[in-house]
User: What shape does this take?
Amino acid sequence: MRHLLTTDGLSAESATAILDTADELKRTLLGREVRKLPTLRGRTVITMFYENSTRTRVSFEIAGKWMSADVINVSASGSSVGKGESLRDTALTLSAAGADCVIVRHPATGAAHRLAGWLDEAGTAVVNAGDGTHEHPTQALLDAATLRERLGTLDGRRVAIVGDVLHSRVARSNVHLLASLGAEVVLVAPPTLLPVGVRAWPVTVSHELDAELPAVDAVMMLRVQAERMHGGFFPSAREYSIAYGLNEKRAKLLPENAVVLHPGPMLRGMEIGSAVADSPRSAITEQVRNGVHVRMAVLYHLLAGQEHEQHEQDRHSEEGK
Assistant: This one.
């Protein structure tokens, strides 16, 4: 794996390898007083965020540091971007300074792909930490890890993704990944919050949340992204909550072992009730915890996995002589 830019086209085998590595790393660190592995010692990882982030940025930083990488954070406001420097020049500067991996979040769809094209020849890996309304692959991977942990397998499971699908890169990445791993995905949203061409996706589409909840193994509530909305996509926050919010009464429609997810940050009372978000069926805190291990696994596969595979091939070759 050279870069991680999208889940569209990521094979079930590759995704499962990342999830299995995340599980192994989680077990390795369990009970350790000092959570530190030497795996990426000498490697330099740079996070470059052009949009605000708490969970993604912090978990990538922790992931890199737990693997002994040197992690450097670059923000648009504190860099030469504020002086008008282009994304390309910033990326090439970071690569020339010795970055082995650049983790980027950008408001423009396709920014991570452009970055990978510029840095590919330099041998710098790129991880897409969210580009516009396009994709957020590591979020989908940590969601899959959490569901696998709770449900045992994703094959044959039915997952509802609810809310602002139109503006959600989380939804897009999850649709591709969950379908690849054998899950059935149903999108539940008002017609105004569904993208054009959604029925060509590997999903079913519904506008009635109450009708879908009794038949799902997991429900993923999405954040309403008001900052990306220009115009009226629904009458009011109250009416949205009545039709698509997961309150305590509505959560009782779920099967007993169904799991509740949310990528955060949550709009409590509108998208999800506090009683549901904090209930035993909620895996929201686990998503954050698993995010660190999944991002450790991604960094491993990008920066150390190929070397390990080559070492194993060389070892087997020597043994065969």
